[in-house]
Design brief:
Structural class: alpha/beta
Keywords: Signal
Oligomer: single chain
Largest sheet: 6 strands, parallel
CATH superfamily of the largest domain: Nitrogenase molybdenum iron protein domain
Distance between the termini: 20 Å
Order of helices and strands: HEEEHEHEHEEHEHHEEHEEHEHHEHH
Radius of gyration: 20 Å
Number of helices: 13
InterPro entries: ABC_Transporter_SBP (IPR050902), ABC_transptr_periplasmic_BD (IPR002491)
Family: Belongs to the bacterial solute-binding protein 8 family.
Number of strands: 14
Shape: globular
Protein name: ABC transporter substrate-binding protein
Amino acid sequence: MHPLVRPAALALAAALALTGCGAEVTSRDGGEGPAKAGGHYPVTIDNCGEKKTYAAAPKRVVTNDVGITELMFALGLEDRMAGYVMPDDKGDLDSVPWRDAYRKTTWLSKKTINKELVLDARADLVFAGWNYGFNEGEGFTPAELERVGIGSYLLTESCRNGREKARGVMPPLEALYTDLRNLGKIFDVEDRADALIATFRKQVAEARAKAPKGADRPRVFLYDDGRDKPLTSGAYAGPHDIITKAGGDHIMKDLKDSWTTVGWETVVERDPEVVVINDYGDTSAEEKRKFLKSYPPLAGVSAIKNDRIVVLDYAELVESPRNPAAIASLAADLRNLNR
């Protein structure tokens, strides 16, 4: 393992232990387990600028991708799920705090989510996002689901912002907290959501207190994948807040989008001192690292010359309950660079 690779799983597990999220907790009606429908409903929430009203808590939710699925698990809502869709390239699910929830919940498909799959699952709600399952080109959209009587909830990180198909309407951690608050209202588990948000805010504040500051803040580039053009993160995807609150200067902070491509010449010009690799997919983190080290245009970039490359998991970098632990992990790595 490269010396700058630091798993965030222990920090995450410790944070969740403080709230008990993902385990059975006392609901508003005083009983154990999930809260019951009742006087709480109907509830109305704002989801990507659209008001949505729920007459009762959905009972058969289908989620798409790991971060979205774990938002449900972190709130102890696996009993409300018909299943999840996720490729099998998202890391070791047996080592996460929600391993029991994964085991109890049906893995519906390791391929692309589609209308036939959610109909077969008898879903009453699909929790996905633009480019996190929803895609006009594939004909799988909230509007198409509405036509067959299935509701939808859009991941806030994926909200389109009116600039063609660019995504992002708020800072990444606020997107995470917004979804937790909304899910808390939809499923009548607001106490769980509030406790989890408070724990995450405390964890982020503690990491920031120890993070590099001022002139010690290194310039950081997020490398997702891509050879001709790198896929990276703009101001509205998880890595922006992860990098910034960990004590780094995110070199693509001026990109008003979430996940997007740039030119290698921009990377070279901004000369990152640290590269964070997004570990997922058919190309391993080590293969990505070897490419970066061998790609001639990057030879003069500080991070490459000094071999300052950090690896974080996909689920730590997309919107998910793993984000605060990733901030703590990266802050520790960036501190070590200054020693």
